[in-house]
Write a structure and sequence with these properties.
By secondary structure, the chain is mostly helical. The protein contains 3 helices and 2 strands, in the order E-E-H-H-H. The longest helix is centred in the C-terminal third of the chain and has 23 residues.
Length: 71
């Protein structure tokens, strides 16, 4: 469990063993509304790592959604 603190709230982030970094970054960005810097701090990685992983996850999600609508 990661606990993320900011000025307005405390967010607990539950991590399951099968969760990838890509999954976590996407979930925190999309559903948590966290910035790259906030995600990096919460996951104890560099902001550049978060940017790289988010870019890859966003591209994958775009391809997935595009292929889903063409079926």
């Amino acid at each position: 469990v990661f606990v993320f603190f900011n000025e307005t709230a405390t967010t607990e982030i539950y991590i399951f063993p099968y969760t990838t970094l890509s999954d976590l970054v996407a979930e925190l960005r999309i559903f948590g509304g966290l910035s790259h810097d906030e995600i990096a701090e919460a996951l104890e990685v560099s902001p550049r790592t978060v940017e790289r992983v988010w870019s890859s996850a966003r591209a994958w999600l775009g391809r997935f959604l595009e292929s889903d609508t063409n079926d």
